[in-house]
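Re: the request from the purification team.
They wanted to know what the chain is likely to look like in 3D before they choose a buffer screen. I agreed to run a prediction and write the result into the notebook, where they can find it.
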Amino acid sequence: MVHFSPVRWVVGLAVVWAMVLASLVSVMGCTKKSKDLEIQVPGQGKVTLPLTETLRVRIETEPPSLDWHKATDTTSSLITENLMEGLVGYDFSKAEPDVTPALAEKWESKDNRVWVFTLRPGVVWSDGQPFVPQHVIDGFKRLLTPATASEYAYFLYPLKNARAFSEGKTTDFSTVGVKATGPLEVTIELDKPMAYFPFLLTHHSTFPIRQDVVDKHGEKWTDPAHIVTIGPFHLKLWEHDKQIVLERNDKFYGKKAEIKYLVGLIIQEATTAVNLFESGKIDAMNSLPAQQIRQLKARKEFKQIGNLLIQYYGFNIEKKPMDNVKVRQAIAHAIDRQQIVEVLAGGQTPMTSFVPVGMFGYEADRGRAFNIEKAKELLKEAGYTDLSKMPKVEFRMNTNENHQLIAENIQAQLKKNLGIDMEIKNEEWKVFLNTVKMDPPPMYRFGWQGDYPDPDNFLNLMTSYSENNRTRWKNKKYDDLIERAATESDREKRRQIYAEAQKMLVEDDVPLVPLFSGVSHHMIANRVENYPINILARYRYNEVRLK
């Protein structure tokens, strides 16, 4: 899915409490007669949210964008995936997640290259306008249009001529492989067969769009007063850096949401969120501070599940000393991942490969394992015969308690094992995303939450044309391998192709260092039933019930 972004603001606990409590009293004050919540909605005045119909969840940071074609992080996608629908969705009731009908009631392909999607009849947007095939086409076009500058345009590159259009080699969108072939039919033509193609359409970047709304309101089209959506909720209030309130969309085509309101309280420090959970101010939170994991595990409200998520440290291979492949290889050998997961104490799995545990293509022994002597040898080969003269390495990360623990551990390991001084710099999430986009530091933290359960979703991330590849590493042979694997129908041959690609990525060129495969931790109040916990961390709240 998107960049993994559990962000908390590191400030004094007393200051945070003062801010949060002030917000809760002034913005969401309780009435004297009940525990119902009150909010001020522009144009509507004071609105009361009955607590018996309101789910309160912790949001870890201000969403950078609710534009589903531009959003790149898990916080933004948590909101947009409750506001919107794609042609297909996910069924998590099976052992392995599978696609299920959403805006498309069915689809078929005889050769895995031409796909025909039949849309549901009678579906309308939140403003009552009918949903038609052109909205799907407009969504694809906007995602691929160079001016949109979407970092996920490459998700649609399998479509005929899509990459040429996205790269500006043609301006004629009619040549791209998507057409309306009936009043309720969309036909998609790919360059090559791809059996798992429907999985790509679960991603928020491929969702349809109301281009007329975008054209009318410009950059403000995602404001509550303007946004038009088609999912189980619609946007009622967005108080930046405070809260987001969603209201049940009674025009939704499917089963209406069990809850009427979803309130996302923006609480950046995880320890503060835990305190608010314990005092009954929030009903659920989806990531927990490592310092409290052992204590919280004993609580009946605690839930845990393995996740298709990896955390890694990336290198800007154009900046010294990371422009030397021997240095990158040495750092990969100098990090003991087992230490890191012990610090986190959350059941994570140490990783040296780039495909997470539990997914086809995972190889436990792929990559550069912890080996101090090998690391020192590689540094000498890089020209650093005197380890005391190793240059300081700038490292950046988004401000986060758990990320800080990991960074300090790796900082100590690199100093002890290689004499490398790692200078840690923290940035607020939106600032950090812009930093790694515009001018990546020599070394930085990132994570990737799976968007669909296929190794392509992880390994395609590091292709030369992926806008999510911030390492500046480009390798044509690697690109060719990933593209060949995507069309390979023989499972074992496909596995071998991915093994070769991973060797290039984590053993030979090393533009990044994998650290561990993730586990998601939750605190869920006893009054909450049917909370969405799954290996892809897709939080759709329309089926949540409140006791």
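For the purification team: The first helix runs from residue 13 to 26.
Please add any questions underneath this entry.
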